[in-house]
TrEMBL record:
This is Alanine racemase. Keywords: Isomerase, Pyridoxal phosphate. InterPro entries: Ala_racemase, Ala_racemase/Decarboxylase_C, Ala_racemase_C, Ala_racemase_N, Ala_racemase_pyridoxalP-BS, PLP-binding_barrel. The modification N6-(pyridoxal phosphate)lysine is found at residue 38. It comes from Candidatus Uhrbacteria bacterium GW2011_GWD2_52_7. CDD domains: PLPDE_III_AR (cd00430). Pathway: Amino-acid biosynthesis; D-alanine biosynthesis; D-alanine from L-alanine: step 1/1.
Length: 380
């Protein structure tokens, strides 16, 4: 527990190391491993996860935006950094100066990168984003051809080092779109190579695809959610287990707080804003100094649980901005300062990010990435 913290996140260094090792082994020599550290490393803390990646010998990471890339470069100067998201025009000079690999999907960005590169005497490194079926970022075949024409013309300033895309349904092993996207990506690669480019990084595989679609690995796989010990879907987990793949993920994140107050509440009392819970018996209640500002979803109100002294305790009433209330009637000796676990293990009980996601109708990605980045994170 960080000194003086009322709520905090613990990241298991051994779990991260285990997950990276398993995932790298599953890739074999076929594809390079790229750790995805966007969204504050999926809520695990960008600086902390950069340190752990360096310790595990990871040499490539992907982030969403320029400030994330700059922090990684400060902590790991030799790291190859991919920028997956949009970089504002006025920040493209930093992309070129620090040799980040910028994802591009329009001619305007390429032209501006080339201009900045010419000014400082460097080549801008780019990853062309091919549209293969997700219909988000990406270049349709005709647009890709046009952009390749521009890259040829700007050859002294633009270095096409990568071609990438992204699956829409990789976590659904039998989805027919997966094969169609794979074929579309292969066609895009041939278009790029046919114009004389030989990009080192060919990447469409995410965590799910990297584990169950060997043909999707090409020369690099972008591994995000699995590195943190979380499965992108129950279907994926079943497929990996049934296939006896040597990937046994260990969740790395635990989220804890400590009790601010313990009080007795009479029967028939409303709890919290709107009195959405009314006690039907006298109870012992604990107030926790954590709320939706910290990252708890208000849909957890009256639904989710926490663990205190090895016992699960129901959340009562609406979650407040900085506080929530739980029923501790069944917890012997509960007292002010006791630790409450929102995600993680305490004694014989465990609450996973998937448990929280299931209770509120969302996905584990959202649960962990919405934890307030200002909360302290510690390696444990």
């Amino acid at each position: 527990m960080p000194h003086g913290a009322k709520t905090w996140v613990e990241v298991s260094g051994s779990a991260v190391a285990h997950n990276i090792s398993c995932l790298q082994a599953s890739l074999g020599d076929q594809a390079g491993f790229c750790a995805v550290l966007k969204a504050n490393a999926y809520g695990h803390d960008l600086a902390l996860m950069t340190k752990l990646c360096v310790e595990q010998g990871v040499t490539r990471v992907a982030v969403d935006w320029i400030d994330e890339a700059l922090l990684v470069k400060q902590l790991a100067p030799s790291m190859t950094v991919f920028l997956l998201g949009m970089t504002p025009d006025e920040r493209l000079i930093d992309v070129v100066r620090h040799e980040f690999i910028q994802t591009v999907y329009d001619a305007e960005t390429v032209h501006l990168l080339a201009l900045q590169a010419a000014q400082i005497g460097k080549k801008a490194k780019v990853s062309l984003k091919a549209e293969t079926g997700l219909n988000r970022q990406g270049l349709a075949p005709r647009q890709l051809d046009q952009l390749l024409d521009e890259c040829v013309r700007l050859g002294d300033a633009i270095d096409v080092v990568a071609v990438g895309s992204h699956f829409a349904s990789a976590e659904d092993p039998g989805h027919p779109a997966n094969e169609a996207q794979l074929q579309a990506f292969q066609t895009a690669i041939e278009r790029v190579q046919g114009r004389g480019f030989n990009p080192a990084y060919l990447h469409i595989a995410c965590s799910a695809a990297a584990m169950i679609h060997p043909m999707s690995r090409f020369t690099m796989a972008r591994v995000g959610i699995a590195m943190y010990g979380l499965w992108s879907s129950p279907e994926l987990r079943r497929t990996v287990v049934l296939g006896k793949t040597a990937v046994d993920l260990q969740p790395a994140l635990s989220w804890r707080t400590r009790i601010a107050q313990v009080k007795d509440v009479p029967s028939g009392s409303g709890v919290g804003y709107g009195a959405t819970h009314v006690t039907n018996r006298p109870i012992r209640m604990a107030v926790l100094p954590i709320g939706y500002y910290d990252g708890m979803d208000r849909r957890m109100s009256n639904r989710s649980e926490v663990i205190i002294r090895g016992r699960k305790c129901q959340i009562l009433g609406n979650i407040c901005m900085n506080m929530c209330m739980v029923d501790v009637s069944a917890v012997p000796g509960v007292s002010r300062g006791d630790i409450a676990t929102l995600i993680g293990r305490d004694g014989m009980h465990n609450i996973s990010a998937d448990d929280v996601a299931s209770a509120i109708g969302t996905i584990n990605y959202e649960v962990v990435t919405r934890i307030n980045p200002l909360l302290p994170r510690v390696i444990c």
